[in-house]
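Two proteins, back to back. First:
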Amino acid sequence: MRKTLAIVFAGGRAEEMSVLTFRRPKAAVVFGGGYRMIDFALTNLANTRSVENVGILTQYRPSSLVEHVGIGLAWDFVGSSRSIRILPPHLKLSGSEWYRGTADALFQNMDFLDLHQPDDVLIVSGDHAYNMSYEPLLRFHLEHAADVTLAVTPVDAEPSRFGIAEINAEGRVISYMEKPKHPRTNLASMTVYVFRREVLMEELRRHAHSPQAPKSFHIYDEILPGLIERRRAFGWTHHGRWDYARTLDAYYQAHQDMLGDPPLVDMGPWNVRTSPWSPRAQTQGPARCRPSATVRDSIVCGGCDVAGTVERSVLSPGVKVGKGAVVRDSVLWNDVVVEDGAVVDKAVCDKRCVVAQGAVVGHGTAPPANSELPRSLTCGATVLGMDVRVPKGARIGRNCIVYPGAGEVQLASGSVPSGGVVRTPAP
């Protein structure tokens, strides 16, 4: 039986996600109310019984991610034969440095590959939301005697935002381009690859020791083009929902797609696993809807306390909505408080935000794109970073971004125009 080792890329921030990744990697971003983005990849791996050992490559502000993953208990990666190991940048006798990209992160952890001696290395991204068993992909890779197999999926909108593969009738990848202006197909790379270990290690060494070695060193730029040209490269197509959520617009829309009857995305059958044991997680009781509450077409997690109106929204554990308050078309993360009479209309609020009495988040109509990220935030949603406190009676427009920790000082004027940005001193 062939042995497969899994590697999860979980170290990137994603600039387009703005304040939501200000203090965490994208893999640790809350998704679907009660999950982190990395939960989807780890659940898929947990359901792939041929994968026994997992390495997680992380770099950017990894604390919350490391605490969340722990020893892998939530995904059954414990015991004498299954394990999860966090692989941050580390000191060596020579050449120690931060990861310079996905391929460099693999190169700096070649000893991990040598330790386990797998036949194949399954590489997945930790910041995409999808439900997929990797077993058919691994079988396809074996049956075609492939050196590398790319998982691809058809995308309907803006294929130029992705790495695009062209595949012939045999299943061979005949071309691959990263974010082409004029894509020849709509088959987007899912950042899921299977490599024969010997091939991967040979290619990593080849590029890392090249006199023209680039400052950044990525799978999609430096490794895949040569493999497609010189090796047996195949493409395996996944049909099913796949949320990249690279922009704030895409993140917001993914949550709206979870609502409605029937929803465009129903994650119930996915049986996503998450960790309830991290030090920052709190045991939550059932959600409570008080006599004055109205809740329509929403996802409400445990520990929420609703006395106002909640419509078409996703509430993470511990959210409180006061009497007379309105939460509409919004995504509220853990322990957000919307006080009596406040309005949150089309917003994404990071953890522990407080919207004080009578304040309005999402004020006005016909918003311009956000001035700081005009290509990431255009849908009209306002995004509040962690621990923002909106003062009593304040009005925050649409497509606004408010940096973590903003409060009475930064919002003293009481009004933020649509498309505006409220910054705070760097921590």
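And the second protein:
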Amino acid sequence: MQMPDPRMIQLVMSLRGGGVTDATVMGALERTPRHLFVPQRFGDQAYDDRALPIDCGQTISQPLIVALMTQALKLDDRCKVLEIGTGSGYQAAVLARLARRVYSVERYRTLSREAEARFEAMRLSNIVTRIGDGSIGWPEQAPFDRIILTASAPTRPDAILEQLKDGGIAVAPVDRETRQVLVRYVRECDSITETDIMDVRFVPLVKGEARAL
């Protein structure tokens, strides 16, 4: 029997202390080895509760933020999820363990291809990736039960929220003057209610596909 990684045990304890109470979310984090998504030069920091740099000037999010955003989505195994910003693929891999299917959009070809290779190696066959403009969502696959943005929108991302099903939930960081706020949106018929969760720090959501990278 394989022994638990003591670094993962320490991270799990840190996440519980940070307010992660959903056992299914915690289980998904435990089954997703973060060191596989971190550049080799940062391997010794893979299980620290902090964001780390990846290629193309992007970051892999702090595990606590990944867990809290996932928890706020209230996922189940019937959910069809849209993720804006594949990045390293870590958030998508966590979502894939909880949802029926994950559609993930990334503007950087390098990041998308690296993430796809990780998903294949981990046998996560329920993730569909696309290289494109995440600011417009994925209209051809809409509507979605859940939507998550892993980059901060300059204003409420209405074009993306329009792709949410009735009763659906979205979680997104949004710019508010000098800070970013993580917001939870719930669609109820033709209206959307929003609740602020916490202050965060994400890379900005940029329009268009970065074709050169």
